[in-house]
Design a protein that fits this description.
CATH superfamily of the largest domain: Ribonuclease Z/Hydroxyacylglutathione hydrolase-like
Distance between the termini: 6 Å
Strand content: 15-25%
Radius of gyration: 22 Å
CATH architecture of the largest domain: 4-Layer Sandwich
CATH class of the largest domain: Alpha Beta
Bound molecules: zinc ion
Structural class: alpha/beta
């Protein structure tokens, strides 16, 4: 087999890998790097797109799936292979992507062809694509996420996509049982030596304690969050602590795509953690439909929320780059009673990072914003931390080669240092190919 890295190499974003033999060419992930000015795409020519025998998506984050409409615009004729939840989340994410980025090359016709081309696959059911066998394995990262294993003539590679080994509020960790392969392509988002995360439950407890303090003094709490996974995770924690009386009963407003994605989790509950499934089966209680949540269905509700009493607002976008959070933060930032809780990564140079670092005045969506509300960080990660990344190769029988992708260069290098004595380790560059 031959591997070609077209994106996601020495960077986070636009993940895209070609696996080929003499007879077959498939693509693993087709992501975009969404930037405030110009999005970056993987380096896929029209000819490459037309030559593919299949596109396999690990999960429905845009850095892994956002390029798929562009592939159809380049006259790709084949199928998109994805799990059922990835398929449903893909529709939400791509609609959002089209609205925000409005890429010129993608026509309505290309989008229609794309929506008819998705083939839903099950976990742990290998399928044949000419002389390749492809298998999806639960990755524990977001609903429907998968590792992808590709085998040709008895030789296998495993690509992590994004991976999480620990069980979270919503999902079981990655299923690493009985894995064997000679090559691993691993993400390295948190590959740095000090990238070690605290236990999620402890973090949630501390977060809830901080929220309680603000609510009791009459303030409002804004929690900006990604639409997929983190938002639902936060909501379920808040619901638990409210039901057990730790948090006072106030409305939890849900704004942006988080509510829609919450519904997708509900009807794909079979892909969620066993504990949630039995809770729904064994009792009348359904955490996805909790009375504590108030869906913000109309824009007109937003002003009433900021004028109203103490409450919690969980809304997009997680990195404060757009979405309803802009409205809320502009109106609530001046009152020191209020609080902003950051649960996601804030890249350098963004308003979110400035707030995280204690800025009292920021440039925020065409406004110079004075910030008096308090800001706290409770970083909940859906990725493996350094300790978990170190463990993954040990779980794969017969492993010889490791390719490190999906991480800033310094993170990838830190991880390479750890693996290099035992394995042949490569940090590929964009455009490079390797025979394995
Ligand atoms: Zn992801
Ligand atoms: Zn990713």
């Amino acid at each position: 087999m031959r591997l070609t890295f077209l994106g996601g190499a020495e960077e986070v974003g636009r993940s895209c890998i070609i696996v080929s033999t003499e007879k077959t060419r498939i693509m693993l992930d087709a992501g975009v790097k969404v930037e405030s000015r110009n999005n970056e795409y993987p380096e896929v020519t029209d000819r490459e797109a037309r030559s593919l025998d299949g596109v396999f998506l690990t999960h429905a984050h845009l850095d892994h799936c956002g390029f798929t409409p562009h592939l159809f615009a380049k006259a790709y004729q084949g199928k998109i292979y994805a799990t059922k939840p990835t398929h449903e989340l893909l529709n939400v994410q791509i609609a959002d992507y089209m609205r925000l980025s409005n890429p010129r090359d993608v026509t309505k016709e290309a989008l229609q062809r794309m929506s008819k081309s998705v083939k839903v696959v099950d976990y742990r059911k290998p399928m044949k694509i000419k002389d390749l066998i492809v298998e999806f394995i639960p990755a524990g990262h977001i609903l429907g996420s998968a590792l992808i294993k590709v085998t040709n003539q008895g030789k296998s590679l495993i690509y992590t996509g994004d991976i999480n080994l620990t069980t979270t509020k919503l999902l079981e960790g990655a299923d690493l049982k009985d894995l064997s392969a000679s090559t691993l392509i691993t993400e390295s988002t948190y590959g740095g030596k000090d990238d070690v995360f605290p236990n999620e439950k402890e973090l949630a407890k501390a977060m809830v304690h901080s929220i309680k303090h603000t609510l009791l003094s009459g303030g409002k709490v804004i929690i900006p969050s990604f639409a997929v996974q983190r938002g639902q995770e936060v909501l379920l924690f808040l619901d638990d602590f409210m039901n057990s009386g730790v948090l006072p009963k106030v409305p939890i407003y849900v704004d942006g795509a988080i509510g829609k994605v919450l519904r997708i989790h509900r009807h794909n509950v079979i892909f969620c953690r066993k504990e949630i499934q039995s809770k729904i089966l064994m009792s009348d209680y359904d955490p996805f439909k909790s009375d504590n949540f108030v869906m913000v269905e109309a824009k007109s509700m937003r002003q009433k929320i900021v004028d109203g009493d103490a409450c919690i607002i969980v809304t997009t976008a997680g990195m404060l780059t757009g979405g309803p959070v802009v409205f809320y933060l502009k109106r609530l930032a001046k009152d020191s009673l209020n609080k902003l809780i950051l649960v996601g990564f804030q890249p350098e140079g963004t308003a979110g990072r400035a707030l995280q670092d204690g800025a009292k005045e920021i440039d925020f969506h065409d406004e110079r914003l004075k910030v008096s509300l308090s800001v706290e960080v409770f970083h909940m990660s859906a990725h493996a931390d350094r300790r978990q990344l170190e463990m993954i190769p040990k779980k794969i029988a017969g492993l010889q080669n490791i390719f490190i992708v999906h991480g800033e260069k310094k993170k990838a290098e830190a991880l390479k240092d750890f693996f290099k004595n035992k394995y042949h380790v490569v940090i590929p560059k964009i455009g490079e190919s390797f025979n394995i």
